[in-house]
Amino acid sequence: MEVVLEEILINALAKNLSGLQHVAVGASSPIPGAAALLAKRQSKGTMRVSILGSEDNNFFSDGGKEIFDIAGQGRMDAFFLSGAQIDGKANVNLVSVGDYAQPKARFPGSFGSGYLYFVVPRVFLFRLDHTPRTLVEKVDFISAPGFSEDNIYRPGGPYKLITNRCMFDVDKKRKCFRLESVHPEHTIDEIHEQTGFKFDMPDGKVPETPIPNSVTLSIIRGEVAQEIAEIYPAFASRVFGVDKVV
Amino acid sequence: MLATQLNIDDLVARIPNGAKVALPPEYAYCSLTAVRALIRRQAKGLHLVGVPSLGFQADMLIGAGCVDTLETAAVTLSEYGLAPRFTDAIKKASINMMDATCPAIHAALQASEKGIPFIPLRGLIGSDILTHRKDWKIGENPFAENDPVVYLPALRPDVALIHAPIGDKFGNIWVGVRREQMLMSHASKDTYVTVEEIVDGNLMDDLKMKAGTIPGIYISAMTEAKQGAWPLGIPGGYKADHDHLKYYVDLAKSDEGFQQYVDKFVLASVVEAAE
C-alpha cells in the first residue's frame, strides 16, 4: 500500500513531539490526534496525551477550565492550532474575513487560542488547505498573535507550521517562517506560488519531508488507526479503512 | 428543603426577556427542551453566555429572534459545519457579538463565584479579541515591574440554564465531571435545570455522588424531562440524533427552512409542552 499524505504528516508531527510529557489535542484535529497517539506509543509510557472529544484519552475531571489551567501552569508541552487564515507573522485568525463588524465570512470563533498560544511552549500550526487565501500576508482578525513584545508574558508560541504541501520552521528572532521541508510530489516553486506571505529559505538544499519507515507505518495503520477511530470514525475509515469497534 | 418543581413552560417563564443566560457547551449537558420552550414563549433580547462555546442551542435561539447579544469563545456545530443562523446573523450584523477566548469566560465566572470584582488572565494582549472587548482592560501585575496582564470583570449571569442526568427532590443535581455546570451555578443568580430523572433519596448521602453534585442551594427550580437534551446526546447516556441534527442544519440554511423546522419540532411539540 502506498504511503499517503496523512501518514507522512502524522509521522512528521510525531517526531516533533518526541520527549514531551503532555501533548493536548483540540477539536476537529484527526491528524494531530493520530500524531499524538503515535508519539505516545513511541514514548514507551512517558507521554500523556489528552484529546478533546475522546473518552479513552481524556483525563480531565474538573470541567472545561482544567485544560487551560493546566496549560497556564506549564503542564502542557504541545498543542495544535489551525486558522481560517495564518499570516507571515504567525498570527492566527479563527474569527472572520473582511470587516469584523459585518464580515464576508464568519467562522466559529477563537476558542482557547487567545490564551494557549501564549502559554504552551510548542504550538503547531496546522492547515491542510495551503493556498494564498489561507496563508496570507496579514490576517483580517488576530485571534492570537504569533509574537509579542518583550515585556509580555509569553513562554509559548508557534513551533512549526505544517500544511498539505510543506513544513515551515519558526525563526523567533526574525519573527517569521522558514521553509523546513517539502512533502513528496510538491515543489519549492509551487510553495512560493501558493503562499501569500514571504518566508525564509534554509541554507543549502531544501529536504523532502521523510516518509515513515515500515515499523512506524505499521503502528500508524494498526494501533493508532484503531485508537483514532474512537473519536474520528469517518477519518479512520477513509484513510486507513478501519471501522470503529463499538 | 424541597426544590421547586415546575413544568418546562413554567420553568422558562422565570427567565425574563433581556436576561443574561449562561449555557453549557455541547459536550456537557444541554437542555434543548428548555431552548424549545424559550422559543415557544417568544423570549426576546437574551444575552447568551457560552461556557465556553455554543452550538445548536445558540443557533436555534438566534434563528428564532430570541437573542440580542452573544458572548462566547465560539459557535460551532463541530462535524455538522458552520452554524447557519449564527453565521447569517453575524453577516447581517443583527446581533451584538462579544468574541471571547475559553479561559476568559471560565476565569470571569470564577471571579463571580468568589464574589471578587475582577480577575487577571494571561494571554490575549496583542489579539483583536481584546481590541474589541471594551469591557476588558490591560493592567499591571501589582507584584512585579513592567508585567502587563489583562483584567476581566466578574461575569455574573442572571441565569444558568442546564440539563443533568439525575437530580433529587431537594434540588441536588448530579453533573459528574462536567464541572463547568457547577461553576455556572455558583456564578449565576439563578440556576434552572432540567433532569432526565428525579431519583428517590438524597444524592448528598453518597460521598461518591456528592463529589459531582451541585447542592440544591443554587437551584432555583427544576423540571423532570426525559430525553431533555435531544437532539443532542448526554455524556455516558444516549447518543446525539445525527440524522435529526443533519436535517436541522440543512433546513436552517434559510430563514424559511428554519421556520419550517420550528413549526414542526418546536411549536408543534404539544406532548413536550404538556409535560
Characterise the protein shown here.
The complex is a heterodimer of chains A (246) and B (275). Chain A is of the alpha/beta class and 246 residues long. Chain A has 7 helices and 12 strands. In chain A, the strands form 4 sheets. Chain A has a 5-stranded mixed beta sheet, with helices on one face. Chain A has a 3-stranded mixed beta sheet with strand order 5-4-9, with no helix packed on it. Chain A is globular and about 45 Å long. The model of chain A has no long low-confidence stretch (mean pLDDT 95). By secondary structure, chain B is an alpha/beta fold. In chain B, 32% of the residues lie in helices and 24% in strands. In chain B, the strands form 3 sheets. In chain B, strands 1, 2, 4, 6, 10, 11, 12, 13 and 14 form a 9-stranded mixed beta sheet that branches. In chain B, strands 7-9-8 form a 3-stranded antiparallel beta sheet, covered by helices on one side. In chain B, β10 and β11 form a beta hairpin. In chain B, α5 crosses α7. Chain B is globular and about 60 Å long. The model of chain B has no long low-confidence stretch (mean pLDDT 96). The chains are: A alpha/beta (246), B alpha/beta (275). Chains A and B meet through α3 and α4 of A and β5, α4, α5, α6 and α7 of B.
In short:
Chain A is an alpha/beta fold and 246 residues long.
Mean of pLDDT of chain A: 95
| Total count of strands of chain B | 14
What is the 3D form of chain A? globular
Uncertain spans of chain A: none
Widest sheet, order of strands of chain A = 3-8-10-11-12
What is the strand content of chain B? Answer: 15-25%
The coarse overall form of chain B would be: globular
Radius of gyration of chain B: 19 Å
Q: Which sequence of SSEs, written as H and E, runs from N to C of chain A? A: HEHEHEEEEEHEEEEEHHH
Oligomer state equals: heterodimer
Name the descriptors.
heterodimer, A: 246 residues, alpha/beta, 5-stranded mixed beta sheet, 3-stranded mixed beta sheet, 12 strands, globular, B: 275 residues, 9-stranded mixed beta sheet, 32% helix
